[in-house]
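Objective 1.3, modelling of assemblies. Example input:
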Amino acid sequence: MTARILEGKVFANQIKETVKNDIVALKEEFGVTPGLAVIIVGENPASRVYVANKHRSCGDVGMYSEVIEMPADSTKEQLLNKIAELNQAENIHGILVQLPLPKHMSADEAEILNFIDPDKDVDGFHPVNVGKLSIGQEHLVPCTPLGCIKMLELAGIDIAGKHAVIIGRSNIVGKPMFNLLLSRNATVTVCHSWTKDLASVTKEADLLVVAIGKPNFVTAEMIKPGAVVIDVGINRIAPKKLVGDVDFEQVKEVAGAITPVPGGVGLLTIAMLMHNTVKAARIQLKK
Ligand code: NDP
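Predicted structure (tokens):
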């Protein structure tokens, strides 16, 4: 039997509807419109597309947004000054520095991201937010793994008691995913490039989350029949062709449910950025 296809658009639209209503409620309650500032340094064309999408999505849900474009030769100090200004700005509740930064600043990435007020850190990358997530006090959580969890919840897929296997241990996806699943009472195994006999581990998964960045890497033989498969990977294999880390055509014949690429969890990421900005606004208004 073919798997249930978990279409990202359906869930992203549900989240955006909730966010829209939350924004209306915030306006009524506090007279405040949540605001997001996105800083982009330099001319990276892919980054420009991502930033434009974020800006458009803010408009769609009735949120204020600012795109701050800084020249590629900006100094670290100029960027830190801009972040300091936004940390103080009352109309800005979420701050995001679009990555990657230009080469001359990449060694300072951690210092730059850590300079964002943790209550405005809508990417959830600040060590304070990472620490809170790891002790079960979810504050602002990275958008992509949070989007995967929201999708499972909206799809009515139980997490508690399941054996969840994650392939990938990045700070952006794999590690926060581990904490989110663990705190929802899954038994969680994290695999990475040193894992021996990966297929024997993934075959045990009731829920498999894949975030490695290798096109069609996970094949049908690696899947337990009926498993839920979440494919976070986005790989461009031709100018107009994106595929995930999971061989969708094969795996959908074995899995119980699967996310497609494109059209899967990628669409949830921006929706969760909107969600996080509203959450950040509430956090700041309660201070
Ligand atoms: P990273 O490159 O930071 O991490 C990749 C992880 O995969 C590492 O932990 C690595 O192990 C592991 N890995 C690599 N090869 C293997 C292998 N052969 N077997 C087992 N594990 C392996 O990637 P990200 O987490 O940033 O991204 C992963 C994918 O998700 C990418 O395709 C990216 O484009 C996509 N992505 C999608 C987003 C969305 O919005 N949908 C957002 C973020 C990412 P090790 O640690 O040992 O090196």
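The CA atoms of residues 155 and 206 lie 15 Å apart.
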